[in-house]
UniProtKB/TrEMBL annotation:
<dbReference type="GO" id="GO:0005525">
    <property type="term" value="F:GTP binding"/>
</dbReference>
<dbReference type="GO" id="GO:0003924">
    <property type="term" value="F:GTPase activity"/>
</dbReference>
<keyword id="KW-0505">Motor protein</keyword>
<dbReference type="InterPro" id="IPR022812">
    <property type="entry name" value="Dynamin"/>
</dbReference>
<keyword id="KW-0493">Microtubule</keyword>
<dbReference type="InterPro" id="IPR019762">
    <property type="entry name" value="Dynamin_GTPase_CS"/>
</dbReference>
<comment type="similarity">
    <text>Belongs to the TRAFAC class dynamin-like GTPase superfamily. Dynamin/Fzo/YdjA family.</text>
</comment>
<dbReference type="InterPro" id="IPR045063">
    <property type="entry name" value="Dynamin_N"/>
</dbReference>
<dbReference type="Pfam" id="PF02212">
    <property type="entry name" value="GED"/>
</dbReference>
<feature type="domain" description="Dynamin-type G">
    <location>
        <begin position="31"/>
        <end position="300"/>
    </location>
</feature>
<keyword id="KW-0342">GTP-binding</keyword>
<dbReference type="InterPro" id="IPR020850">
    <property type="entry name" value="GED_dom"/>
</dbReference>
<dbReference type="InterPro" id="IPR030381">
    <property type="entry name" value="G_DYNAMIN_dom"/>
</dbReference>
<protein>
    <submittedName>
        <fullName>Dynamin-related protein 5A isoform X1</fullName>
    </submittedName>
</protein>
<dbReference type="GO" id="GO:0005737">
    <property type="term" value="C:cytoplasm"/>
</dbReference>
<dbReference type="InterPro" id="IPR001401">
    <property type="entry name" value="Dynamin_GTPase"/>
</dbReference>
<dbReference type="GO" id="GO:0008017">
    <property type="term" value="F:microtubule binding"/>
</dbReference>
Length: 642
């Protein structure tokens, strides 16, 4: 089970290195979910002496007032017998301390680096690992001592600040509380018991430690407390006898102090029956065993939390986008890639591509997580389509034919207009056989009206293509990250569509003009011949254009115009697709790409400007994701090694 404590030690060190201290943050915290043992006690309760007795080394700063001003995460690692003892700090990863006096000085110096030379406190922990054959595998968090009065140089708020810091650790359900109380004071006034009772009223997580038993007044003892009669906890109270101040001043060896502690409990009549569960050595072993049990019970929940949080972090990082490259080439590549993503989405809209979304269900220890993936799998949960191309087809299949039908050829081919145009075409000399010039003028004046529906079709498709640009822009998540680039891409795409519209309009109107400029002669040759179509020469000029004859001309012209309309109904969409739709798919951003190649680095950088808050958020999320992935790997390694 020792590897479980080592596992939590590694994750705690990673948390501290990557800024996860369990404090209030907009980021998910792994620190709060890790089982830990927090050491709580008032000033002068003997808290530091208990820790030094557990370690077997004199290594903690001492003095009057508040000495511990930052949480100290103390990780103990048992070595083989005969191995040399040493200590390491997380903030000095390549330095080993074999002189524990230097360890004491470094704790004080590192505290001052964070808080200054003032008496202020900080919630940022110091990580200290001690490797020794004389310890058990254990992790303890030494918290600032609770106090009722601020010392000189400290604000009055320091009392509440310390209590808030202690409470922030021990109120977490995964935290075991090591409550240190001196036996020579009334237990009812114990700061440690008071605050522990507030966050753990049933005593399920609290371990009571009674210090200074040897300093009690003569005729008094702590048996009722140690036997759980005075104040009952789930776990038995443990009494310890620390070194006296005189022993500390004389540098009495810790090993000798432990031996004297064992002798005290075994030889004192009041405590002899409790000696087997008294002393700092028993305390360390008991805490190590309890911490192992808690870690074993909490590991499945931690795994579930890690898996869930990794998914959340990856999702948010994906939404925020990738970080910006530093060099000009990297910036240009990033811009080109983002533009290609936009172009691909735009093409998918034009083609009406189905985007399949799948769900992969992953069963973890206690939670069921859902991953939405864009890949081909067996279980299709739902599908969605990028619309756009169907609306363009609607222009060709409905709007254009409807517009052609609405053309008022009957006005062009009224009896009055037919007679007028034919007469004008004949001039001073009436036609001999058939009014050919009149036919041409009637047909041209009718066909020219088709330009309106043709232009309208070009404009309608242009509007749809432009609308798809804005849709594709909004669906390209990377463009949301860079507002400047989004504006440039939008403008470039719309300018391209405008050029394509003008070219398409010219080509489409040419189709109409070609029909006006050259008539299909075979159509007229196949018409039935009328021997009387020239009229009776004996009649006057105006009598020759009788109503029956003019109606026949109008019918012939209308039939030809309808034939041309039917033909243009098919050729106009082809022209539009060729000049606008296919061209938009092929070269929507070509001119923009050309401009990018000659753009200065400063200009490229401006396109990739983003909100500094977003950049900071991405960096923080990346570090936190690194932490969770590292923790996931560590836990998986332990799980497979079982």
């Amino acid at each position: 089970m020792d590897n479980l404590i080592s596992l939590v030690n590694k994750i705690q060190r990673a948390c501290t290195a990557l800024g996860d201290h369990g404090d209030t943050s907009a980021l998910p915290t792994l620190w709060d979910s890790l089982p830990s043992i927090a050491v709580v006690g008032g000033q002068s309760s003997g808290k530091s002496s208990v820790l030094e007795s557990v370690v077997g080394k004199d290594f903690l700063p001492r003095g009057s007032g508040i000495v511990t001003r930052r949480p100290l995460v103390l990780q103990l690692h048992k070595l083989e017998e005969g191995s040399r003892e040493y200590a390491e700090f997380l903030h000095l990863p390549r330095k080993r301390f074999t002189d524990f006096g230097a360890v004491r000085k470094e704790i004080a110096d590192e505290t001052d680096r964070e808080t200054g030379k003032t008496k202020q406190i900080s919630s940022v922990p110091i990580h200290l690992s001690i490797y020794s054959p004389n310890v058990v595998n254990l992790t303890l968090i030494d918290l600032p001592g609770l106090t009722k009065v601020a010392v000189e140089g400290q604000p009055d708020s320091i009392v509440q600040e310390i209590e808030n810091m202690v409470r922030s650790y021990i109120e977490k359900p995964n935290c075991l509380i090591l409550a240190i109380s001196p036996a020579n004071q009334d237990l009812a006034t114990s700061d440690a018991i008071k605050i522990s009772r507030e966050v753990d009223p049933t005593g399920e997580r609290t371990y009571g430690v009674l210090t200074k038993i040897d300093l009690m007044d003569k005729g008094t003892d702590a048996v009722d407390i140690l036997e759980g009669k005075a104040y009952r906890l789930k776990f038995p109270w443990i009494g310890v006898v620390n070194r006296s101040q005189a022993d500390i001043n004389k540098n009495v060896d810790m090993i000798a102090a432990r031996r004297r502690e064992r002798e005290y409990f075994s030889s004192t009549p009041e405590y002899k029956h409790l000696a087997h569960r008294m002393g700092s050595e028993h305390l360390a072993k008991m805490l190590s065993k309890q911490l192992e049990n808690v870690i074993k019970a909490k590991i499945p929940g931690i795994q579930s939390l890690i898996n869930k949080t990794i998914l959340e972090l990856e999702t948010e990082l994906s939404r925020l986008g990738k970080p910006i490259a530093a060099d000009a080439g990297g910036k240009l590549y990033s811009i080109m890639e983002i533009c290609r993503l936009f172009d691909q989405i735009y093409k998918e809209h034009l083609d009406g591509v189905y985007v399949y979304k799948f769900i992969l269900l992953v069963q973890t220890t206690s939670l069921l997580y859902i991953y939405v993936m864009k890949a081909v799998r067996v279980d299709i949960i739902f599908e969605c389509r990028r619309p756009g191309g169907d609306k363009i087809y609607n222009v060709f299949d409905n709007q254009l034919p409807a517009a052609l039908k609405r053309l008022q050829f009957d006005k062009q081919l009224s009896m009055e207009n037919i007679k007028k145009l034919i007469t004008e075409a004949d001039g001073y000399q009436p036609h001999l056989i058939a009014p050919e010039q009149g036919y041409r003028r009637l047909i041209e004046s009718s066909l020219i009206t088709i330009r309106g529906p043709a232009e309208a079709a070009v404009d309608a498709v242009h509007a749809l293509l432009k609308d798809l640009v804005h849709k594709a822009i909004s669906e390209t998540l990377e463009l949301k990250q860079y507002p400047g680039l989004r504006v440039e891409v939008t403008n470039a795409a719309c300018e391209s569509l405008e050029r394509m519209r003008e070219e398409s309009k010219k080509a489409t109107l040419k189709l109409v003009d070609m029909e006006c400029g050259y008539l299909t002669v075979d159509y007229f040759r196949k018409l039935p011949q009328d021997v009387e179509k020239g009229g009776n020469p004996s009649h006057s000029l105006f009598d020759r254009y009788n109503e029956s004859y003019l109606r026949r001309i109008g019918s012939t012209v209308l039939s030809y115009v309808n034939m041309v309309c039917a033909s243009l109904r098919h050729s106009i969409p082809k022209s539009i697709v060729h000049g606008q739709v296919r061209e938009a798919k092929r070269s929507l951003l070509d001119r923009f790409f050309t401009e990018l190649g000659s753009m200065e680095q400063k200009r490229l950088s401006s396109l990739l400007n983003e909100d500094p808050a977003v950049m900071e958020r991405r960096t923080a999320l990346s570090q936190r994701l690194e932490l969770y992935r590292s923790a996931q790997t560590e836990i998986d390694t332990v799980a497979w090694s079982k």
